[in-house]
Amino acid sequence: MMQSNEIEVPINNDLERKIADAFEVFDHSQSKMIDVREVSTVIRGLGCCPSEAEVQEIIVGLEDPQFPGSVHLQKFLTYVSQLITEHRYEPASPEDLLDAFRTLDSKGVGYLTKEEISTYMTQFGEPFSQEELEEMLEIAIDPQTKTVPYEYYINQLMHNVT
Fold first, then answer.
1. Residues 57-75: pLDDT tens digits?
2. Are 4 and 24 in contact (CB under 8 A)?
3. Span 103-150, pLDDT tens digits
4. From CA 150, how far away is CA 120, in angstroms rounded?
5. Residues 6+ apart with CB under 8 A from 84
6. DSSP result, 84-139
7. Is the pLDDT of residue 1 over 90?
8. Dist. CA 43–CA 76, nearest whole Å
9. Dihedrals phi, psi of 109, to nearest 5 degrees
10. pLDDT per residue over 25-45, tens digit each?
11. Rounded to whole angstroms, how far apart are CA atoms 123 and 143?
């Protein structure tokens, strides 16, 4: 499917080096091409948080017409550099997360039950898969109370990002 591409791709700055390094992890044949199915993993690994619909739009913009199902490093570098420079698809701020949790916490108790969070995360907005939900709950659930004390959870998220 992917053929070797002999054209040298110039790396002009630290941001492009970071993007190229992330891309190359998935360039198994060292052809400066990756499978379109890897695009979301690379972009999210670079700290961007697009929705699945936005990922599909990105793929449409990046897919190589000569090699359907593939994305070339040169096009990926240009496109993703611009996304990052424009601060598109950045994760929510701690304040925004706290506001969202407080909105869901109708009783104002400072936590959500496992059942509540599971319902919200799988049935509203862009639903989590079962695997994503389990991964979140593993970190979010307090083992003693079996609830999600959301201020603590947000602090955990922010600590893991840095």
1. 999 999 999 999 999 999 9
2. no
3. 999 999 999 999 999 999 999 988 888 998 999 999 899 999 999 999
4. 14
5. 15, 19, 46, 47, 48
6. HHTTTTPPPPHHHHHHHHHHH-TT--SEEEHHHHHHHHHHSSSPPPHHHHHHHHHH
7. no
8. 10
9. -95, -5
10. 999 999 999 999 999 999 999
11. 24
